[in-house]
Amino acid sequence: MTLDPLPPWDRDVRAARRLQAELAARVRVADEWRDPPRWLAGFDVGFVERGRTTRAAVVLLEARTLAPVERHVVEMPTRMPYIPGLLSFRELPALLEALARLGRRPDLAFVDGQGLAHPRRLGAACHFGLAADLPTIGVAKSILVGTHAPLAEDAGAAAPLLDGEQRVGTALRSKRGCRPLIVSPGHRVSHETAIDWVRRTLRGYRLPEPTRLADRLASRRGDDAEGPA
DNA sequence: GCGACAG
DNA sequence: ATCTTGTCGC
User: Fold this and answer.
1) What is the spatial distance, in angstroms and rounded to an integer, between the CA atom of A34 and the C1' atom of C2?
2) Closest CA to A58 of A49, A50, A69
3) Average pLDDT over every residue of A1-16
4) Which of A126, A143, A170, A214 is least enclosed by beta carbons within 10 angstroms?
């Protein structure tokens, strides 16, 4: 037996982290839209065949009614393993391909995962937003970095997510009895607007409609039986 | 050195 | 994320 060689991804990990720091400097955390969003999109990525294939799902919804008007699923070979903090590199190709399938360009995109709430401020929502030059919001189901004050049990309770002194997102109890969502700006959106749009797109489930529908589509059980009002 | 660690 | 059935709680 020999000593374990350096992991093949070690070099790339370093390069990827440097690139993240550079890209993060280009992320704009402020609202930049001329008109209120009319088309929303939800993105989610899953893995099949023991991770060998990456699958991205996108759902386009009309902002006013939250009615889904387009759905697409794309698959491609997985190029990178999962490494905490480098998720965007693993998911970005599939996310961009899914976006390309849309017949309309969304005005605002919800991405499953972190936005600013990332060690180098470049979660998948930021990276995707930059790459597509689209306003994006990160909606994660757990914390990668940061801490927040205890949240009340009531739906709607929220607290800033802090990484040291900096606010990187918001912990939001989207539904009573559920663990809070971690909402953070991706690109071209402010903290306030990110939270506002997540709240406006909640429909009694833990996840906001864009992300919830994309999740269902990616996990294939994509029928259309609605639950409680 | 010892954990923590989106999906 | 994914592998997996029933089960406890709002």
Assistant:
1) 41
2) A69
3) 66
4) A143
In one-letter notation, the amino acid at residue A222 is G
Distance in angstroms, CA of A125 to C1' of C9? 33
Q: What is the DSSP string of A56-69?
A: EEEEEEETTT--EE
The pTM of the whole model exceeds 0.70: yes
Q: What angle do CA A153, A157, A162 make, to 5 degrees?
A: 115
pLDDT for res A6: 54
Quick: pLDDT tens for A174-194.
Answer: 999 999 999 999 999 999 999
Question: Which residue places its CA closest to the C1' of nucleotide C9?
Answer: A177
Domain A30-146+154-218, what fold? Answer: archaeoglobus fulgidus dsm 4304 fold (3.30.2170)
Provide mean pLDDT across the span A34-59.
Answer: 96
Helix-helix angle A124-132:A10-24, to 10 degrees: 70
